[in-house]
Amino acid sequence: MALRHTFRSLWVAVVASAAFLVACSVQAETKDPRFITIGTGGVTGVYYPAGIAICRLVNRARKENGIRCSVDSTSGSIYNLNALRDGELDLAIVQSDWQYHAYTGTGVFKGRGPFKGLRSVLSLHSEPLTIVARRDSGIRKFADLKGKRVNIGAPGSGQQATLEVLMHQMGWTMNDFAQVSEIKPSEQSQALCDNRIDAFVYTVGHPSGAIKEATSSCDSVLVTVDNPAVRALVRESPYYSAAVIPGGMYRGNPKDVKTFGVRATLVARADVPDEVIYSVVKAIFENFEEFKEQHPAFQHLEKKAMVSEGLSAPLHAGALHYYRQVGLLR
Ligand code: GLU
After folding, report:
1. Model confidence over 232-261: pLDDT tens digits?
2. Alpha-carbon distance 310 to 241, whole Å?
3. Atom of ligand 1 nearest to the CA of 93
């Protein structure tokens, strides 16, 4: 009887201390590290390495900010904005045109209505609408895509949505192509070089791994995207601008190529705590030269432009606080 009693006390003690340990670790998890996830894009694009570069700097200051930052590889802007709104992501990198449309509830976001809880944080590199075609397809300008096999980008990608805007402006539909595919960026170069498609569309910063892969694995050319419809879009929309992909950046493409583009922007939900967003922008701006070296597409970044251009949703309060503190904004 006495023995049984001892056993029972021992058992109670074990259970109690295990419960205490669990409670402690739960407290440490919820109180100490704060987990944030940044939605990016395909692994061969620029969003993904950009997200990794941001997280690296944020995580390095963990003793000070208590943040554990990680990235999600996604299909791109439209997916990211929907996931942000659904609370699946805390921050995301998205095209400036889709940031605008998500905030105002227009374009592809008409059905969901305005995303009033969307906040801008900063803008990054510019992203020209880039079309790469097989050299033997004869495609040199956008109009040549008629009757061809075109990869329009994965569902949820920024490029598919922006291409649709341009085609609508031109009075084209997807039926103008002989074949439409939605292959993801990491597989589109292979599809091009295997002659399964004639061209692919990608809104991406330069230089990028994806375009390097396509131009070095087989004979391919960057296509000019410049016509009255493009010029009208640039004239009428604050988030589009004329763009040039510099000659000599990719094998077999020595000349500048005219197109139009947007900016890559970092956005967040308004309810992500101010101190978290403050720590994110602080980590980037305090280590700015190092950040710029993380990707060749960041070479021309300038702090002033990053806190003002391409941002149509209101600035997140945590970002604004930092920008005012260091005199970047008044
Ligand atoms: N602009 C593309 C998109 O929104 C992503 C580009 C990238 O991953 O660098 O889908």
Report:
1. 999 999 999 999 999 999 999 999 999 999
2. 10
3. 4
Please tell me the distance from the alpha carbon of residue 320 to that of residue 256, in angstroms, as a whole number: 37
Distance in Å, CA 158 to ligand 1 centroid: 6
What spacing in Å lies between the alpha carbon of 144 and ligand 1's midpoint?
Answer: 24
If you measure from the C-alpha of residue 137 to the centroid of ligand 1, how many angstroms do you get, rounded to a whole number? Answer: 25
For residue 283, report the distance from its CA to the centre of ligand 1, in Å: 23
* Dist CA 89 CA 117 (whole Å): 13
Q: Do domains 18-124+264-325 and 127-262 have the same CATH topology?
A: yes
What is the 8-class DSSP label of residue 105?
T
State which fold the 18-124+264-325 domain adopts. Answer: D-Maltodextrin-Binding Protein; domain 2 (3.40.190)
User: What is the spatial distance between Cα 150 and Cα 95, in angstroms, rounded to a whole number?
Assistant: 22
Q: Determine the average pLDDT of the residues in 20-40.
A: 61
Which amino acid would we find at residue 281? V
> Alpha-carbon distance 19 to 142, whole Å?
65
pLDDT tens digits, 278-324? 999 999 999 999 999 999 999 999 999 999 999 999 999 999 999 99
CA of 116 to the centre of ligand 1 (A): 23
Q: DSSP readout, 157-175?
A: -HHHHHHHHHHHHHT--GG
CATH fold group of domain 127-262: D-Maltodextrin-Binding Protein; domain 2 (3.40.190)
Which amino acids bring their CB within 6 angstroms of ligand 1?
A: 41-42, 45-47, 76-77, 95, 127, 157-159, 203-205
What is the pLDDT averaged over residues 265-272? 98
Q: For residue 27, how far is the Cα from the chain centroid? A: 33
Where along the chain do its domains lie?
18-124+264-325, 127-262
Mutate to test the pocket of ligand 1, among 40, 44, 77 (most ligand atoms within 8 A of CB): 77
pLDDT band at 33 (very low <50, low <70, confident <90, very high): confident
Give the Cα separation of 142 and 148 in Å (integer): 11
- Tracing tokens 């960041």 back to the chain, one arrives at 298
